[in-house]
Design goal:
single chain; alpha+beta; Aminopeptidase; four-stranded antiparallel β-sheet; three-stranded antiparallel β-sheet; 4 helices
């Protein structure tokens, strides 16, 4: 089940973010509580649940088309949660009027392979050497 995140989800979301095996947040101060709260209260912030437990989350900026975060608890990877979350976020971005979405991720990671498999196209590298991906949002993504 995919649903909007609530303030009560914060502890579990934080645990998932800090428990990932790739894209480890080396400096947690880089992601502020205010930024997380903004995504939850004003942007697109979705969680995936399995048997009543939050197993993943995604955040996307409805103003810029940026997919800011997509993380799944390592114990629940490869069950379709990441794809379901990403599809739901992309549908919301399309509904907000975006023709494309973009994101960044590390090179040589499972995340890079995931995005390539799901139609994302590399556009270059960011200043910190992250891969910049874009994906066109087809009309059917909005429905």
């Amino acid at each position: 089940m995919i649903r909007k995140a609530t303030p009560d989800d914060h502890a579990r979301i934080h645990a998932i973010r800090m428990g990932v095996r790739e894209n480890i947040l080396s400096d947690p101060s880089l992601v502020t509580a205010e930024e997380v709260d903004w995504y939850r209260d004003h942007a697109i912030f979705l969680v995936a649940e399995e048997a009543g437990e939050i197993v993943g989350f995604t955040c996307a900026n409805h103003q810029t088309g940026l997919v800011w975060a997509l993380f799944v608890d390592p114990a629940h990877e490869a069950h379709g949660h990441g794809r379901a979350l990403l599809d739901a976020a992309l549908a919301e971005l399309a509904a907000a009027g975006h023709a494309q979405a973009w994101l960044t991720t590390g090179s040589g990671t499972r995340a890079e392979r995931f995005y390539r498999r799901h139609g994302w196209r590399e556009m270059g590298r960011s200043i910190d050497e992250q891969i910049v991906f874009i994906r066109a949002l087809a009309q059917e993504d909005a429905g």
